[in-house]
Amino acid sequence: MGRWEPNAHGRLATAALELYNERGYEQTTVAEIAGRAGLTERTFFRHYADKREVLFAGSGELQELFVRAVADAPESATPIDALAAGLDAVSETFADLREYARRRQNVITANPELKERELIKLASISAALADTLRRRGVAESAASLTAEAGVAVFKVGFERWIVAAEERDMAQLMRESLDELKAVIVGGRGVW
Amino acid sequence: MGRWEPNAHGRLATAALELYNERGYEQTTVAEIAGRAGLTERTFFRHYADKREVLFAGSGELQELFVRAVADAPESATPIDALAAGLDAVSETFADLREYARRRQNVITANPELKERELIKLASISAALADTLRRRGVAESAASLTAEAGVAVFKVGFERWIVAAEERDMAQLMRESLDELKAVIVGGRGVW
Question: Which residues on chain A are in Cβ contact (under 8 Å) with B141?
Fold first, then answer.
């Protein structure tokens, strides 16, 4: 990346999200994205494999961050506490991305193929978390269950966080979702 | 379906699974499946849209069964108890299908595209369960969390059930998985 393209990666992502929201994901071309960002198609392809990847380039980083925080939790932490540490780390990184996340979610929700891709990315995060928990000494199926629960809490907390009027921070909403899962799982009738 | 094709649906499924396990899913053609079943390609296409659908035709029934049992749980049942009723109903139906399920899982696991399809089917079950719980009066996010937890328990219980040496019945393994999830979620250290 040369000096003449400052923050090309971010500019392309912003331009793509604008266009996907304005005219729809299918109707947007790479040429239009590059044009809106004031860059060339060639530059686009130096940063992203295709127009779909613009939406999912961050998923790998999210997974790494989540997994690293779980791996680095104190040795004495229970699986669910290690997972909560992961949710905290993720929340901290997302803090400034709420508006971006809202616009991205609009695009994903409107397109079945993108929704499938999102599911697959979340399943990949779940598998990586389960592996990490196993490396912490958690038994096979307990690791899988904790990881699946963690991704469920992440999904629900994330959905709350991007609601239009919502202003509470992500960490708080993740904690609330985790508490709600606990309440549901132990069978308390308070949630009815 | 004429009288000259008794149980064509099942014969085709059995033949397909045999071939997928023997030579791999990609390498198997519809003509070969029909031939192994002693039927024509034309008959195959009366029963299944393509060779992938042989593996997923049962997923819709599974979803219906699971959802119906959750919907029909006593009004007084908590969300998690309604879910447990769904797992019981599913287990009863699967009882005689363990060997079939093992062979199907071998095929799915060996093929990334099929694994993705399986994830999408499970996500569809989760969404349907969440809708059903909402119709029972469960709050929005509690319904999503319960449904995701239910699918996680189903996945882990199912994986245990198809382990080669496993002889305990599915209902028992589902209950154990649910209990394990409870133990993990409340943070007990017994699972370490």
Answer: 156, 159-160, 177, 180
